[in-house]
Amino acid sequence: MPNWPSGQATANILKVAIAKEFGLDAQVQEIGTLNAFVGLENGKVDIHPEVWQPNLQDVIKKFVTEKGAVVLSQHSVPAWQGICATSAAAEKGLKTIADLSDPEKTKVLDTDGDGKGEMWIGAPAWSSTGIERVRANTYGYAKNLTLVETEEEVAMAGLDAAVATNQPMVFACYAPHFIFDLHQIVRIAEPPHDAAKWKLASGDDPLWISKSSASTAWDAAHFNIAYATAFDKKHPDIAAFLEKVDLSPEEATAMSYALEVEHQAPLGYAKKWVEGNAARVDGWAKR
To answer: Do 216 and 198 contact (CB within 8 A), yes or no?
Structure first.
């Protein structure tokens, strides 16, 4: 189970559905994605519910393509990631990625009184967080913004407070996500993705961030369920079931809203979800 809400909900939906359809008890354990891929290879992890691309291309190349230890399901959920601003920040002139390199504009993001604005770039364990740091270095706004890494729950509470007090805020964001339904959020404009302008060093290198560059928008994103190749051999019926799971972006948004805004427990939400989608879940399990 990853540490973001849609992934937490999906992990538990899979747990409840596997118990319902196959009579097996799946344990749900929160693990960072990089450690989860190691677990998928060594047999300690069977399923990862939400593997994002292009964030994890390096890891996917290693464990899926080269080692053949992990399988990505055929169904993928389309997604987006980039930088967002509250309407208050946009009204203060923060609308494009170039605006973030203007210290006169970004000082309105200062909340601790040091004269320098702050920007949340993701949770510490996310692969995207390091890439957002690379983008900040390459674009140049790392010089005039304090880049903050903290858990998403803390960042979203800060967003709620910023909106309520009309405090301008700029932050890393992704969709599907409930914030676009909950608040007036503006996507910061960037040059279109250009693969030639993305040079990411291997994450195995401790200096990969300083050796990397990325000066355009993210490539189109999507995410898939992953499972261990060994698990496919041990439980081909469940692997076939995973291949039929066809969650939508709208459902991922609803999951994040339920867990983050309504504070529903992931397992409790999953039980209600599986009960409410019983025929669909039964269909996933049919060979």
So the answer is: yes
Give residue-wise pLDDT tens across range 193-241.
999 999 999 888 999 999 999 999 999 999 999 999 999 999 999 999 9
Give the global pTM.
0.89
Give pLDDT tens digits for 130-180: 999 999 999 999 999 999 999 999 999 999 999 999 999 999 999 999 999
The single-letter DSSP state of residue 203 is: T
Torsion of CA 15, 31, 5, 267, to 10 degrees: 30
CA distance 73 to 242: 7
- Residue 226 near residue 65, CB atoms below 8 Å: no
Length of the chain: 287
SS3 content of the chain, % helix, strand, coil (to 5): 50, 20, 30
Q: Is the peptide bond before 176 cis (omega within 30 degrees of 0)?
A: yes
Backbone angles phi, psi at 265, to 5 degrees: -70, 140
Structure-block tokens of residue 228: 């261990």
Which tokens is 171 given? 């932050």
Note whether 176 and 221 are within 8 A (CB): no
Q: Are 228 and 45 in contact (CB under 8 A)?
A: yes
Could you give the CA distance from residue 246 to residue 255 in angstroms, rounded to a whole number?
14
Q: Give me the residue label for tokens 């000066």.
A: 215
